[in-house]
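Field reference: sequence -> structure
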Amino acid sequence: MKSNSKTKQREELGSFIYQYTADISVLEEENKILKQTLESMKSELEKFRSLPLLSCEVREVIQEGVIIRLPNGNEFLVNKSEECKTLKPGDTVLCEQKNLTIIKKIDTKKIFNVESFVIIEKPEISWKDIGGLDSQVTEIKEVIELPLKKPELFKKVGITPPKGILLHGPPGTGKTLLAKAVAASTHSTFIEIVGSELVQKFIGEGAKLVKEIFQLAKEKAPSIIFIDELDAIAAKRIEIGTSGEREVQRTFMQLLAELDGFKPLGNVKVIGCTNRKDILDPAVIRPGRLDRLIEVPIPDIEGIEAIFKIHTQNMKLDKNINKEKLFKLMKEFSGAEIKAVCTEAGYFAIRKKKVTISEKNLLDAIKKVKEEEKDFEYKRMFG
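Structure field:
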């Protein structure tokens, strides 16, 4: 009996050991598979986190996830990683490209620094450097210079000066010079933006950049924001089609919001500039925005004479020059073209190893500038 009992116990123990050994083998195999799966998932996760990642803007945070806007303007409801617990509208995030899952939040300052994309300077151009634009100078002094220098005067009278002005007219007539001269006379920081570059370079970031430019202007006040080629972002609105057109509209709407957002008697003024006033959206030039329109035309004979005098004041001119003849030949020339004539005449004198400018030098310079203008017009029209 005892022998049978011991045998049975040994068999049960052997069976238990065998079962235990089998369980260990199964567990080890399962553990091995789990480790492989974990490594595979880690590798897959690293792929999601690896570059390139999309830079997107958070539009709204809801219970189901996060609504983001892609650089092309499309919006999606997506998930977020555990690292992105505190997101709010306006944040910039990085998303993986396959499922657009938000990987992490980034500081917008790491994307671009507004000061590196605008021209900031303290101009030294005086009103004496501008000729043939007396009425325009007077109007700019009243609208921009006086409110910056004597805001209390407007408060006493009880009127509100314009927030900004629009300079319009053909190319090269002195619009930028006028803006720089008023910045110099008021000791203001001159912040220059080119509308076409803003649209082309900053798809998805144009509206943010406009906002930061106005913030920068407030920090560096007194300041003047000069928007060249305003028609590139403020043309009449049409049916929105492509993502590029949508981006232009967002940038334009942000510009209008910024114009509405600061005080007329503040120490920031806006000067818009365009060669195509006819295509501007009426919203940007309505009262309360850029509502003072100042035309800067091609100079008349008196204007040509004044501009010519400014650009030749440091040059030695021959006494026998028939200036009336020259001014008639330069009819329809812009201020920039008159300056070019003076420069070219100087080069013609240098080639002859002379320091005095003759009438022939000036006539040759006028001919050259006219030919260059014809070539430019031909290429513009026919490519």
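Note: The first strand starts at residue 54 and ends at 62.
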